[in-house]
Each structure stands twice: as structure tokens, then as C-alpha cells.
């Protein structure tokens, strides 16, 4: 009789153990981390197509800013140029210049050619260069450059950049 009670007791413990482990809730997995707001898919942001594939969009933007700074430093070394602002998108450089008084504030063909040559020598990835000394266009290029330096993606300026290219390079 004692062994029968022991057997029932063991069966009861076994059933209780199976029920306790079988009715447990599934293991909860941690919730996926929220998407990094600084990370943007390549289709959503205009990135430098010549940047290495392992480069993040923020790094590509920083690379564009470094390249633009190099171009600015090279362009302002020209005796006709007082100051310059550059925005690079893909393989196009938009160059806004303020000229010295010797050139009467106009970009003639000779000065424009000099600036284009300096830009292409400074950055071999640039295929098209658009140059303007028009104060309105220069101001718009400066605004885009300032916002891009603050981290705003160039894709936010897509229409404005296209319009600037059309205004700076008729027939483009």
C-alpha cells in the first residue's frame, strides 16, 4: 500500500512538473531596436556614387564636405576669385564665386575655364562643373552648403540643385 501511495505521489509530481513546464509562456525576444534616424537607405539620399560601398551615408556626406572644402581652397587661390562656395552632388560641382574688383564681378569665359580646370584637377571624380558669380545663385549655393554641413541630406535640395544647374549651365 505504501508503494501504491508512493507511485501515485510520483505520478502527481510528474504531471505537475510537465504541466508547469508545458504551460510556460514562450521565451520573449527583445523588441527590435528602433531604426537609427541618421541612417538613411541609399535610395533616400543622394550619396557620392564614387564613395566606397561600405561607407555610411553620413560618412559619404562628410566625404563630400571634405572634397568641397579642398575645391574651395584651390579656387580661392586664383587671383580673380575673392571667395568661393562649392556643393558636390554625384559627379557635379556647383561653384559660386565672388570675384575681385579687377574682373568687374562677371565670370567671363576665361575665368570660368580657369575655375573649371582647377576644380577638375583638385577632384578627379568631378565630371561637370557649373560656375556662377550671380549673387542670387551664390547665396543659394551657400545656403545648400551650410545646411549640408549641418547634416541635412542633399536629397532635400534635389529640385533646387536641378534648377541651379539649369540656370548656371544653359542647355544642360
Automatic annotation (TrEMBL):
The keyword Lipoprotein applies. The keyword Hydrolase does not apply. One of its GO terms (biological process) is sporulation resulting in formation of a cellular spore. InterPro entries: Spore_lipoprot_YhcN/YlaJ (IPR014247), Spore_lipoprot_YhcN/YlaJ-like (IPR019076). Residues 28-55 are annotated as: Disordered. Residues 36-48 have a biased composition (Basic and acidic residues). It comes from the Bacteria. It holds the Pfam family Spore_YhcN_YlaJ. Keywords: Lipoprotein. Signal peptide: none annotated. This is Sporulation lipoprotein, YhcN/YlaJ family. It comes from Alkaliphilus peptidifermentans DSM 18978.
Amino acid at each position: 500500500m505504501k508503494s501504491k501511495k508512493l507511485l501515485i505521489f510520483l505520478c502527481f509530481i510528474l504531471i505537475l512538473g510537465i504541466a508547469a513546464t508545458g504551460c510556460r509562456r514562450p521565451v520573449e525576444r527583445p523588441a527590435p531596436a528602433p531604426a537609427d534616424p541618421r541612417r538613411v537607405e541609399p535610395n533616400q539620399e543622394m550619396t557620392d556614387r564614387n564613395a566606397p560601398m561600405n561607407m555610411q551615408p553620413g560618412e559619404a556626406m562628410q566625404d563630400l564636405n571634405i572634397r568641397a572644402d579642398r575645391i574651395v581652397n584651390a579656387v580661392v587661390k586664383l587671383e580673380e576669385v575673392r571667395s568661393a562656395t562649392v556643393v558636390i552632388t554625384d559627379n557635379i560641382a556647383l561653384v559660386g564665386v565672388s570675384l575681385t574688383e579687377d574682373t568687374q564681378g562677371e565670370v567671363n569665359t576665361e575665368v570660368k575655364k580657369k575655375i573649371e580646370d582647377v576644380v577638375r584637377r583638385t577632384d578627379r571624380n568631378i565630371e561637370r562643373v557649373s560656375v556662377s558669380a550671380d549673387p542670387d545663385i551664390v547665396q543659394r549655393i551657400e545656403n545648400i552648403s551650410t545646411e549640408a554641413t549641418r547634416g541635412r541630406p542633399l536629397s532635400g535640395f534635389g529640385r533646387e540643385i536641378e534648377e541651379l544647374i539649369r540656370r548656371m549651365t544653359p542647355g544642360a
